[in-house]
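Problem: given the chain below (129 residues), write out its structure.
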Amino acid sequence: MNQKSVELTPFQQLTKDVQQGKVEDNVFIAEFLNTKFHIAIDKKFDEKQPTFDYLVYQSQQTENAFTVVISEDESYIKNMGASDILFVKGGDIIKSLHPNLEITIVFNGGGIGMTVDKVNFLKQNVQFK
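Solution.
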């Protein structure tokens, strides 16, 4: 029986390639910064200006740590119980992320984590446009 494989986006294929050592990390990071992802938010209503926080989850890769979960597939984020979702570039997520949070990128059949150290390194060392 031949199962049809799930069609991966270019970023998802790149994620698998970097995990298998076929692609350098810097190529992955460049693509990540310009790819748009869905991310769950918690709206905060202030009389002067509405704001939001990213929803955070317990990290699956680091004990006693928290992560934001992002995906190119909005249904992944909705299935986690999110009702308010933003669609933003990876670079914008990095710029606005609290310094103690990891990033978990998920998709059908895979995913990859980005540690707190990696997030903070990118925040400090990448030129954002």
